[in-house]
Amino acid sequence: MKRTLALLMAVLMIAALLPLSAAAANGEKLIAITYDDGPSQYTAQLLDGLKARGAKATFFIVGYQAQARPQIVQRAWMEGHQIANHTWDHPQLTKQSAAGVQSQLSRTDAMLDRAIGFDQSYMLRPPYGDYNQAVLNAAGVPAVFWSMDTADYKTSDASVVCNQIVRAARDGGICCIHDTHQSTVVGSLQAMDILRQQGYQFVTVEELFYRRGITPKNATIYFNAYPGSTADKLSAPVISAADGAAGKTVTITGDSRTAIYYTLDGSQPTPVNSTRYTGPFTVTSSCTVRAVGVVKWNGLRTDTVSRKVDYIPCVAPTLTLGEGGVIRMSTTTPNAAIHYTTDNSPAAATSPVYDAANPPAAVKGTTYRAIVTAPGLYPSTECMLTYTDNGFFLRDVSVGDWHYAVIDRAILAGLINGLRDEYMDPDLALTRAMLVTILHRAAQPDGTFPAAKFTDTSSAEYYAEALNWAVANKIVDGYPDGSFRPNQNITREELCAMMERYLATRGISGDSKDVLSNFADAAKVSDWARQSVNTVCQLGIVEGYEDNTVRPQGFATRAEAVTMVLRAVDLPDPAPQTPESPAPEAPAAG
Questions:
Q1: Measuring CA to CA, which residue among 9, 78, 58, 298 is closest to residue 178?
Q2: pLDDT digits (tens, 9 = 90+) for 447-465
């Protein structure tokens, strides 16, 4: 401790000998105001004041205080302030072992990460200014001392705090104060108002070092960033939007020293929710673009800017079957034209225009696609209507889809119904309840079955009869906790297991031939499911994907499930077994 105090006195003496009029070559004066020991009950008031002044600060946070007020830590980071480490419970680090120092920092780092919402790196301020090289080596991060010690904790008078900060102010200085005192919060904001009139800018420690050409090094402590050459302040991005052929083209320009990140929902860009800007992009709906320029996410980024981008399209058309077997098309957009195709190609402004007096005929095996155009508006989204070979109208299946014929046949066979009118949701993940229902419809069993007894099912549900049948035939048996989990998505290997049990009710089984090993991801199949997956692959019910995988852990879709079930339906039942006739007796001799 004595060495530390001696070093501090030496630094202060040297600082006193330097010319107070020193300023940056470009005339910009910078101060890093830093707040220790919080967050406290007064920090929200401080953040309000900093925001109103457009000032940035650095918060050296104590871990247990962050644990008590994580939302304040997150707010400070979101508003562009730098978050830094002031240990977990403010001990003298020179009295800690290397492991103790590391524990103090790592525990606080983890808390700060949780509060902010993602991992960051944090500078250190040793409590009480107590450090030595062993402490710095154990910490392994840049450490920050101060050049402006206002002793704000010794007074409860805001005006005294204000005067002390103003008197100590120097370009490139690092000011140490505490947001655990309301007098400091009020006094520091008052001091900023005075110093701003003197040309000072209030920046984070990271920005101070960056603009003074200082690259912080690990296991090194810094006291100030007195003037030398000064880089200009990072400029915020500029967002522009222009009409394009396919929508609004958004361009973001920014400071060449930064990487630009943006969101489209108006939320604050962060490392986890934003997209890095790489060039102009197109939006096809109204949105709020928000962008920030980043050198370092923690303490060295620009102000966030936003712009609302209006995209006004035509109202999408409505396609229906009209009297006389024709397809009727309409829109509520005034002075609009409806463009359509009948060959399953995308509709465009160059496609034929719908004529209400001469509508296209409804032809089985045809997908109709249509968009709306009108002067001064963007084209509408495309609408689709398919008239299937079996006479059904569908709005989310086209004749070009791989599952078109499967879905059409499954509807005719009564295996599936639409979850919404004319929508089959073929790519929706299949649930356990959906699968037992499809298998029950395929089996068409006679009679009734005992009620299944699960903790999470009811006899009033749509799948109740199917579940009773599935339990009675040992197709499902539930989970160890007594639940069936009807709404849980089913994996492809689980689907294979239930398919194998369904086939067993018809007397169909595989043999010992191994076909599963022919697939590239055979090793990913769970041990309990290997026989089932091998059997359904052997019987041709599962053929795998184009990349020669079966994707056992992936969720099965409704289209994949009805495909497998129909392949199972098409398998011939085994010939009935008849007892062998006894061999004829040999005729008697003689």
A1: 58
A2: 899 999 999 999 999 999 9
